[in-house]
Design brief:
Its EC number is 5.4.2.10. By secondary structure, the protein is of the alpha/beta class. The chain contains 15 helices and 20 strands.
């Protein structure tokens, strides 16, 4: 069981001891800390909240609402929603901030509080540190009975989000409608089952099949949209002779596709394909985190733009995008960030832009994927035991590979002649992630396995 405090929010498992898990007392404490920080920023008392379909979602939602109201803050509850919808609603509603109740790709026993500023963007590390300090000191002042906050709901936020996507200048509804796509969606028993079909219908797609469409949080498989978890979707796409399969994670900010032959388009190539389309129509720069495929750099350079890597984490990608005036960016885990829509990963705009690209190219998904460079990535992880010495581990690795180019902005990224490997601790789990990429699948795997052995030697 675990409780993790990071720039990704407060994340933990449900059930267990206070301080070791996301217990009700911890939900109240960290909500109160964030609400206290919001109250210090000015007179705006409005806070937006929304949740994914997790089993614990309604319980956590009640705790969050009551805590914010007790601080004198007014809550606008979107109910079952998506992360990007809550982000956009903060701006639409001119709120002081927001809280998204989701553990994203983590299994059903996890939940989290993801914290947003008044721009609908994740709070940065500096603000996060202040919130954690307030929580540690329990420096809360609750409102008197006549100053308690109000509670209201907003059932139109998702439609506002979809309207913004459909009306986005690079989304071509007529082209998508004309293509008459037959699409299978894996909604992983969460709010994607509500949001994605509604979007597809607004885009003119009529032939939609939904797998795992009951929003009950009892995920039919591991909810992270990785190859090993999507065999059911791949099989169903082939069985139905569909044009495309779509998979999202429980809070609908990550996205990947399945080609018409049942093969994976590749989650790393979601951003590559969308960026290719955007850059054909809007010249500019791109950003992805340094654990993402170099194919984005290839596509960016081809279109005359400049590619910049960032540290892992959505807030880091967003900061780098702002600094470089990037027109498209995101993360290789299927996260698409379209800055003039909003600075947040958003599967809905990703779907709309990908379908537009596919329709205009008049290619199948497999044919489109074949137009991009082939890199192979090996994604691995090692679980960390309590009390691990990360500095000792990384010092050992740096010494061993001192002749190679090493980037320490975010963990360790080691460059080889044509390949790379990135080691970093996760913001969301007690693990070290080991990602390696090469032109050859076996080479990427061998590099990752070698570094995993090096880590075990140093532990």
């Amino acid at each position: 069981m675990a409780l993790i405090k990071s720039i990704s929010g407060i994340r933990g498992t449900i059930g267990g001891r206070t301080g070791d898990t996301l217990s009700p007392l911890d939900v109240v404490k960290f909500t109160a800390a964030f609400g206290t920080w919001l109250s210090q920023q000015g007179d705006n008392r409005k806070v937006i909240i929304g949740r994914d379909g997790r089993i614990s979602g309604e319980m956590v939602q009640r705790l969050v609402v009551s805590t914010l109201n007790a601080l004198g803050l007014d809550v606008v509850d979107l109910g079952l929603s998506t992360t990007p919808t809550v982000e956009m609603a903060v701006v639409f509603e001119k709120a002081a901030g927001g809280i998204i109740l989701t553990a994203s790709h983590n299994p059903k026993e996890w939940n989290a509080l993801k914290l947003l500023n008044s721009k609908g963007e994740f709070i940065n590390g500096e603000i996060g540190a202040k919130v954690l300090e307030i929580a540690a000191n329990e420096d809360f002042v609750f409102a008197g009975v006549d100053q308690l906050g109000a509670y209201s709901t907003n059932e139109n936020a998702l439609q506002q989000h979809i309207d913004a996507v459909v009306n986005y200048p690079l989304v071509d509804v007529a082209a998508i409608k004309k293509a008459k796509f037959n699409i299978v969606l894996d909604a992983i028993n969460s709010t994607g089952a509500i949001a994605v079909p509604q979007l597809l219908k607004a885009l003119g797609v009529k032939d939609i099949s939904v797998l795992n469409g009951e929003v009950n949080g009892k995920f039919a498989h591991n909810p992270e949209p990785l190859p090993e978890n999507l065999s059911g979707l791949c099989n169903e796409v082939k069985k139905q002779n569909a044009d495309l399969g779509i998979a999202v994670d429980p809070d609908v900010d990550r996205l990947c596709f399945v080609c018409e032959d049942g093969t994976l388009f590749g989650e790393e190539y979601t951003l590559v394909a969308v960026a290719d389309y955007v850059l054909r129509n809007r010249k500019g720069n791109t950003v992805s985190n340094m654990s993402s495929t170099r194919a984005l750099k290839d596509v960016t350079v081809k279109h005359g733009g400049e590619y910049t890597p960032s540290a892992v984490g959505e807030v880091n990608v967003v900061n780098k995008m702002k600094a470089t005036n990037a027109v498209i960016g995101g993360e290789g885990n299927g996260g698409i960030i379209v800055p003039d829509l909003h600075y947040g990963r958003d599967a809905l705009i990703g779907i709309a832009l990908f379908l537009t690209h596919l329709a205009k190219e008049k290619k199948s998904a497999r044919q489109l994927r074949n137009t991009y460079p082939d890199y192979f990535m090996s994604k691995n992880k090692i679980e960390l035991t309590p009390g691990f010495d990360l500095k000792k581990i990384f010092d050992h690795i740096k010494k061993k590979y001192k002749k190679n180019e090493i980037n320490t902005e975010d963990g360790l990224k080691i460059e080889f002649e044509n390949d790379w490997v990135h080691l970093r601790t996760s913001n969301t789990e007690p693990i070290i992630r080991i990602y390696a990429e090469s032109n050859f699948e076996t080479t990427a795997s061998n590099i990752a396995q070698k570094l995993m052995q090096d880590i075990k030697e140093a532990m």
